[in-house]
Each structure stands twice: as C-alpha cells, then as structure tokens.
Amino acid sequence: MTWSLVLGIVSGTIMYGAPLLYATLGEVVGQRAGMVNLGLEGILLVGASVGLAASVVTGSPWAGIAAAGIAGCLFNLVYAFLVVSRKANQLASGLALMFLGTGLSAMIGKAYIGRGITGLARYQVPGISSLPGITRTMFSYDLLVYLAAPVAVVVWWLIFRTRWGLGLRAVGESPSAAFAAGRRVSWAEYQAAMFCGLMSGIAGAHLSVALARTWTEGMTGGRGFIAVALVIFSKWHPLRAIVGALVFGGAVTVGLQLQASGSTISPFVLNMIPYVLTLGILLIWGGARRLVAPAALGRVYFGEE
Amino acid sequence: MVRALKRVGETLRKRWGLGAVRYTVILIVALLAYGLVLLIAGKDPIKAYVDTFTFTFGSAYGFSELLVRMTPLLLTAVAVALPSRLGLINVGGEGQLYMGAWLATWGAITFVSLPQAAFIPLLILLGFVGGGTWAAIAGFFRARGWVNETITTLLMNYVAPLIVGFFIYGAWRSRVPGASAFPQSATFPPAARLPRFFGTRVHLGLVLALVALGIFWFMLERTKWGLKMRAIGGNPEAARRLGMRLGLYFVVVMFIAGGIAGLAGMAEVSGLHWRLSAGFSPGYGFVGFLISWLSGGSAIGIVTMSFVLAIVFAGGSLLQITQGVPFAAVNVLMALILFAVLIRPRLVRRKA
Questions:
Q1: Which residues, at least 6 apart from B164, have a Cβ–Cβ distance to it below 8 Å?
Q2: Contacts of B293 in chain A (CB under 8 A)
Q3: Does 1.10.3470 match the CATH number of domain A3-292?
C-alpha cells in the first residue's frame, strides 16, 4: 500500500463519514426521546432530492442545504404525528416514511437527473499542503464536513448538559415519570423528531449537493439504515457516533480507492464492505445494548390520554 | 358438518365483515390522497385510475398480468407473516428473494441437461435453501442474543443484490453473440422454466404461492407448532420457562420464512424472466412487509392485499408509460395506504 493511497483513504474517510454523522446524530436525539425511526432512509432521500432541486433552482448550494433541512424537518413531522399523536407502531411508521421518501424523492428528482451542479466550495485543511504527498484534492472539504464533529459536540452538550436534554432523556427513559415531573412528553418528542428530520435532511443534501453533485434515484443506498445501526454501536452517545461514522466512511473510501487504483477485486465485493462491516460492528458491540438503551425505546406512551 | 360450516361462516363474518369495510375505506382515502399528489405533480389522476382499471379488468390478459404480479407478493408477505407470529420482525424479504433467485439460477445454468420433471423440484429446493440460509443467519444472531433481527435483515437487503451483481457481471454473464448488452445470466434451458398456464404469463409460481399460504394457515391455526409459536410470540419468557427452545424456533422459522421469500425470487427468474438480471425485483420484499402488516398476518388478508398491491404495481407501470411518472412513485401510494391504517381513524380502528 502506497503512501498516497493511505492519504487518500484518510482524506476520504472524513469526507464520506460526515453525512452519515449528521444522520446518526439526528437518530441519536430521536432515540434518546424513545423513538426508533427506520424512516431515516426516506428522509435522506427527500433531503438529497430537495437539496439538489433547490440548488439548481436558486443557483446557490447553501440554499439547497437549507431547503433540505427544512424539508427533512417537515417530513419527519409526519412520522412524529403518527407515533406521538396517533400512538402508531414505530416500526411500521418508519417504514411508511421510507416508502413515502422513496416515492416522493423519485418524483421530485426526476427533472434533475443528470443535472450536474458546482456544489459546495471546498477548502483544504490549512497548512496540510506542506506535508509530503498531499495533492490539491486531498483533505479539501466543504464547510459541512468541518462542522460535523463540532455539531456532534454541540449535540452532546445539548443532551447531557442542558435542562432540555435532561427532559429529552427523561422522556426516553420513562415517559410517565417525565409527565409526572411536569414535562410535556409529546412536545419533547415532537422537538426530537424535528431535530432528527433537520439533521437527516442536511445529511441527504450533503450527499447530493456536496459529494455526488447530482441526483440518482435511491442514491442513499441504505445509509439511513446504517445510521440506525451506528446509533446502537455508539451506545446512544453523540461523541461515539463520530467513531461510528468514521468507520463507515473508511469502509466506503477503501472500496473507492481500491477501485480507482485499478484493483482486481470486483467493485461488487468492495461495495459490500460498508454493510458487512456495519453488521460486524453490531455483532461485536450490539450485545451490551440493553444496559445503555433508553428504557422506553420503541414503546408507545398512552399515559396522557 | 353443519356445525363446522357454521363455524367457518362465523369466523369469516367476524374476521371479514368489518375487515372489508375497513380495507375499503383505507383504500379510498389513500387513493384520494395519491390523486392529490399526482395533481400537484401536474399529472391527471382520473386518467391514471381509469387507465389502470380498464387495463387490469378490461381484458383477460390484463387480469392475468395481475396474477403474475401477485405471485411474488403472496410469497414475500408469508415470509413476513410467519416469523411475526414468533414476534420476529423480518424486513429482509428483498434480500432473501435475491438469494433464492441467485441459487436457483446457479442450478438452472449448471445442470443444463436435466429433464423438466427433475429440474423443477430442484429449482424449488435451491430457491428455498438460498433464501432460507440468508434469513437463518439473521435468525441465528437473534437466537444467540447478539443482535436484533430487524436491523440485520434490513442491512442484508443491500448485500444480496451485490452478490447477484458480482455473478451476473462476472462469471455468469451471458456472452452469447447477439445477447443483450445489459449484464444478465444465460437464458434458462426450457426444462428449467416453470410451466405457464392458458397461454398467459401466469406460471407455476402462483400455485406454489397458494400452497405456501395454505400450509402457513394450516400450520398456524391447526397444529401444535402454531400454538407454540403464538405462545412464544405472546410471552417469550414464559415460553422459555415452559421448556421451549426459543433459539431453535428462531432459526428454523427464519429459515422457512426466508425460504418462502426465496421461492418468490426463484419463481420470478424461472417463471417470468428466464434469466437473472440486476434489479429484477422492484422492491417486492419490502412490499411483502407492507402486505403482511396491513393484513394482520391473516391468510385471507394476505390474498386480498396482495391483489390490491398487484393493481397498484400494474398502475405504476402504466403511469410510467402514459404520463412519465417514475415507477418508484408507487411507493407514495403504498405509504399513503399504510398511513391511513396507522392514523387509525375511529371508523377503521382495529382491536389492538
């Protein structure tokens, strides 16, 4: 393995880990409030299609990112309405959201298939070009990549160091206790769902506007489900989610780099790496989940009726 | 005899009388909402619905195509409904379908010279084992308490098509001169094709699906295994203390469920396409989950909802041709049907 290959993998790991980190953070907040959202895949798709469409229409990639964030937020309100207000089954609601996102994004994105955009401006990490073997495209990221880890810290601070986060966690552990303590359970759940939608919308737009710079149907390729898996791996902790996202980013990048360097390994095998790795991670670290998972995760709370 | 008939009638009325109203209301609401979506997208919903209706019910051919569409849906729905009795959530029908088709294709292009009488049972066996093994992996992980089957089956959905891709872009790629440039396996020998009926594209897969459904119903409602499975699904801890081997049930039931989904994949490639190609399934596995969930796991519900979803799919293909709506838009309609159930307005509320 050559030095430039190593640099390329490290550089790409951060790049491809970033959108997954945003999605994972959103899901961490949602699950801390007791909601498992398998609809993340749908939100990512809606974010990706809306983000690209808005970028093309307005000519500004940042407008695209903002539009995708809002769209994701509104889109996840559908899930919140079903789960919180109508006390519906979380799993089925999540999959319904996935169906809706798949269909809507195909309709929204159809007019923009093959429309390339310039995407977000990229800035190289300052001072890194003096290192040997660094080319101009390496370690050159858009602002959303730079912001990903700080956002994780902010989310950690919100969950563990603010009254809002305390309420959120109380709702996820025991909604009836939170209600008895004067918390508005439904409102906290709605807030968590909106935050989850916002983050996932941005994550989807980051995929289409900053990374791929184009729209293809179903382009998220199961990243929503991988994010749900990474939440389990990260033990519902935002800072551990950074590690999870980097592992996934690394798996994607190793595949891409090996293909680019003319490896004889089939691209199909390389494309399997992220999924197999995620499964492996779950197998190794998934067993201890009962100790740390929010106690009311996945349960329907009927208390206030 | 009379009493038995009476009992059947009573069950039908209880299960079905209110159910029919419920399903009809749900469908009308969903169709209206979808019409609105189409209208916003600048399409003509009335033309879409009229076209779909006249195509599917206007001719014997159109109707037979519905049965063709229905075949994989019935099987993938049973593949979800069976483990759900145990409390297992199998969202991996799509991957299991691909693996069934994959192993069946291996058989079809390897044992080229077998007679049909031996070939068809072999393909059924291979399709079953392919999908079953894939699902049993998730069942095994769950049985050992390592990781929940929902997320494993979901992730494995994305691996199976890559395995299929690996083979049809590689070792199995048909290199016959004049063959399609599109990567696909060699065409199945005539003996490896499921028989078709009445000059339509309806094939033996439909019979397999109905048999599977019948066995599913009989097993669950009339045998001790069905009772035990319900006991485990109702209270796993109590069942375990009564000495039932939960782990064994998890693995075996997931194997059978995956096998049934694998049959759907086998039937698609050997009954319909006669070759394996990438993306031959427009998400039948996921739709199977939807059908099973909507029907509450009842056999009659599965048949009805599969039929309805077959119409939805047929309409989706039509809409793509006549009005340029992407086929994936059928997902919107499916989501709306699910929403109508999940919102649970009083009229259609189901006893929890």
A1: B98, B101, B102, B276, B278
A2: 92
A3: yes
